[in-house]
Amino acid sequence: MKWETVAEFSFLFGVLIAIWVGTTGVASDNTYSLLMVLGIIVGLVNIFDTHLERFIRALTTMLICTIAFYVIATISANPMLMFFEKLSTAVALFIAPVVFVLSAIDVYEIAMEYGNRKAKAERASAKRRR
Questions:
Q1: What would the pLDDT profile of 42-57 be if each residue is shown by its tens digit?
Q2: Is the dihedral of CA 9, 55, 90, 109 positive or negative?
Q3: Do residues 106 and 49 lie in contact, with contact meaning Cβ atoms separated by under 8 Å?
Q4: Residues of the domain holding 63
Q5: 112 inside domain
Q6: Number of other residues whose CB lies within 10 A of the CB of residue 15
């Protein structure tokens, strides 16, 4: 089985659990912890994804939308929007760790590239001075 297949199924499984938790109201500390752990796992499995930048951009947009839904539902007294409050909480608790893990790995890779370029420049500068 390819890592891409594992990543796809783990993400789908996490989204389905988040939707189930958000719609049924089975919100507890344990279910929220499960969603966060699944998010971390999905983030770590998706390191190998070939479309990582698009995936991070899409997840970040989705996270911003869930936060907006939560804020609007909290401000409003509309019962229909209260449904979105629970759903957006569950989805955000799943997506936020994924975005965090993938972004942290991206920052690490950028820092390593910068360090390698700086080391090359220093070696070239030292070579010219000789």
A1: 888 876 666 778 888 8
A2: positive
A3: no
A4: 3-101
A5: no
A6: 17
